[in-house]
Amino acid sequence: MYLARVIGRVVATQRYAGLDGVALQLIQPLDEAGAPMGDPLVACATVSSGPGDFVHWIDGREAALACPETYVPVDAAILGFVEQADVLGRDLAKPGQAWEQPRASGAQER
Amino acid sequence: MLIGRVVGSVVATRKDEKLANMKLLVVQVHGHDNKPKDQYVVAVDSVQAGVDDMVLFATGSSARQTTQTDARPVDAVIMAVVDSWDLGGKNVYEKWA
After folding, report:
1. Which of A108, B39, B65, B67 has the most CB atoms around its CB within 10 Å?
2. What's the CA gap between B82 and B93, in Å, rounded?
């Protein structure tokens, strides 16, 4: 599993049958210091995450196991929120991180 | 999954028979900022996508997890046609724009 920040949302009505009702969100993977690592990608959101949220996610076939229907062509899925992440002596989940995507208008501040 | 635009299709009559009656589309990978990358993939279509459609495709073993590509030598499958996406609330791509 990896850490990531949710940075956007994807709307796709024409999709593989087993994926009805599954939210698709753009995430920016983060490294051990909470800084962006690699390119953003699209993941299924199995929790009610939204832009600006600090999450952990999984890639590969196992991502499909997090979806309501498990036999689906999915290679990335958000598994949950990160409330606290102590890494190498730093808490990455504290607000005001090195990389903060501006929150979507209307998203409540935590 | 990655975002890409369908830029062409591949027709191959002489191929592994396990790839029979599968539509092969050429997809150019796009970044989250909708800038096209110099990266192309041939993916099996599972949602009736066509040329110029912006799509999402899954890669790796996940690509085999559809009724059509089950136990077939496939590592990329188009699993959605994108209508729009936004970054922090601002639409970056809109199919109807």
Report:
1. B65
2. 9
> How confident is the prediction along chain B (97 residues), in pLDDT tens digits per residue?
999 999 999 999 999 999 999 999 999 999 999 999 999 999 999 999 999 999 999 999 999 999 999 999 999 999 999 999 999 789 999 999 8
Question: Which of A7, A24, A71 shows the shortest C-beta gap to B87?
Answer: A7
Q: Do B46 and A9 touch (CB under 8 A)?
A: no
Distances (CA, A) of A100 to A5, A11, A84, B23, B27: 8, 23, 16, 41, 31
Chain B partners within 8 Å of A11 (Cβ): 82-85
CATH, domain A2-91, list 2.40.50.220, 1.10.10.10, 3.30.450.40, 2.60.40.1180: 2.40.50.220
pTM for this prediction = 0.91
